[in-house]
Specification:
mainly alpha; MetI-like fold; 2 domains; 16 helices; about 70% helix
Length: about 300
C-alpha cells in the first residue's frame, strides 16, 4: 500500500517538474543579451557621472565609478538654471498630460456611440491626421500666427491629442459590456454620468497607460522647444541637455581641428552624464507607480480568439 502511494505521488509530481527545452534556453539567452544592451549603457552613464575627470580621460571607467565623487551633481544642483528647468519641465509635462488625457477621453467616448451622427466621418478625420501631416514649416507658421512663440503654450497645445492613443482608449471603451451603460441610463444617468461613474472607473489600466505614454513623450521631447522657444528661462530640461551634448560635440570637433582653447572650454564628460541622469531620474521615479497598470494597458484592443 505504501509502495502504491509513493508511486502515485511520483506520477502526480512529474507533470510539475519544469524541463527547459533548447528553444526556450535560446530565447532566454537572447532576451538577456538584448536586455543587457539596453541596461549596460545606462550603467556606464551612471558610472561616468560619479567618476573623476582624470579617470574618464584615461578610459578607466566602464560600469563602476572610478575615484568616486559627487562633484558633478553638486555643480548641477547649485546651478539655478538647471533646477528652474527641472521644475518648469515638470509643470509643462503635468499640464500637457492633463490636457491630453481630457481631450482623448472626450473624443474617444462619443466615437463609441452608434447614435452619434457623422461618427464615420469623424473617425475618418481622426485617422487622416494620423497618416498625413501639414509638415514642420506650416505648423511653425501656424504657431507664429497664433502668437504662441516663446510661450509655454507652444509646448502644450500642439500635439495635445494623439490619434493613436485615442484609438486605443476607444477600443477599450467599445470592449466594455453595453449592459452597464443601459442599466445606468435606465436609472436616469446622463452621458457624462455614464462616462465618469461607469466607464472611467473601469478603465484605470488604460488611463494609467496612456497617461504614461503622454508624460514620457512630452518629457523626452525637445524639438518643439528647439523650434518655438528662444528665451532661456522657457527652455525645458531636455533642450538644455541637448545644448550641453551639442556643445561638447562642437568642442570635440574643434579639438580635432587643432583648436587651442578647446580643452579649457570643453564640457566635462562627467557633467554631461550627470545631466542625463538628472533629466532621466524623475520619469523613472514615476514609472513604478503605474507599472501594475502597464501590462494590462498595453494589451488593450487585442483580438480575442
Amino acid at each position: 500500500m505504501k509502495e502504491k502511494t509513493a508511486e502515485s505521488r511520483a506520477v502526480y509530481a512529474e507533470p510539475h517538474q519544469k524541463v527547459w527545452s533548447v528553444p526556450q534556453v535560446i530565447l532566454v539567452v537572447f532576451i538577456a543579451l538584448v536586455s543587457l544592451t539596453c541596461v549596460l549603457p545606462f550603467f556606464n552613464v551612471i558610472a561616468v557621472s560619479f567618476s573623476s575627470k582624470s579617470a574618464i580621460l584615461r578610459g578607466d571607467v566602464s560600469f563602476w565609478p572610478v575615484d568616486f565623487n559627487t562633484t558633478t551633481y553638486e555643480v548641477i544642483f547649485k546651478d539655478p538654471s538647471m533646477t528652474h528647468s527641472l521644475f518648469y519641465t515638470i509643470g509643462i509635462t503635468v499640464a500637457y498630460t492633463a490636457l491630453a488625457m481630457v481631450l482623448t477621453i472626450l473624443m474617444a467616448y462619443p466615437l463609441t456611440k452608434k447614435r452619434l451622427r457623422g461618427r464615420q466621418f469623424f473617425n475618418f478625420l481622426a485617422l487622416f491626421t494620423m497618416y498625413f501631416s501639414g509638415g514642420t514649416i506650416p505648423i511653425y507658421l501656424n504657431i507664429k500666427e497664433l502668437g504662441l512663440m516663446n510661450t509655454p503654450w507652444a509646448l502644450i497645445l500642439p500635439g495635445a491629442l494623439s490619434t493613436y492613443n485615442m484609438i486605443i482608449l476607444k477600443s477599450f471603451f467599445t470592449a466594455l459590456p453595453g449592459e452597464l451603460e443601459e442599466a445606468a441610463i435606465i436609472d436616469g444617468a446622463t452621458d457624462f454620468q455614464v462616462l465618469f461613474q461607469v466607464y472611467l472607473p473601469l478603465s484605470m489600466a488604460s488611463l494609467a497607460t496612456l497617461t504614461l505614454f503622454y508624460a514620457v513623450g512630452k518629457w523626452n521631447s525637445f524639438q518643439d522647444a528647439l523650434y518655438y522657444i528662444q528665451t532661456r528661462n522657457l527652455q525645458p530640461l531636455q533642450l538644455k541637455l541637448y545644448n550641453i551634448i551639442k556643445g561638447s560635440q562642437s568642442v570635440e570637433v574643434t579639438a580635432m581641428e587643432g583648436g587651442s582653447s578647446a580643452v579649457t572650454s570643453s564640457v566635462s564628460e562627467s557633467i554631461r552624464s550627470a545631466t542625463i541622469i538628472f533629466a532621466t531620474l524623475p520619469i523613472l521615479v514615476v514609472y513604478p507607480f503605474v507599472q501594475r497598470y502597464f501590462v494590462a494597458g498595453v494589451t488593450i484592443g487585442a483580438v480575442k480568439g
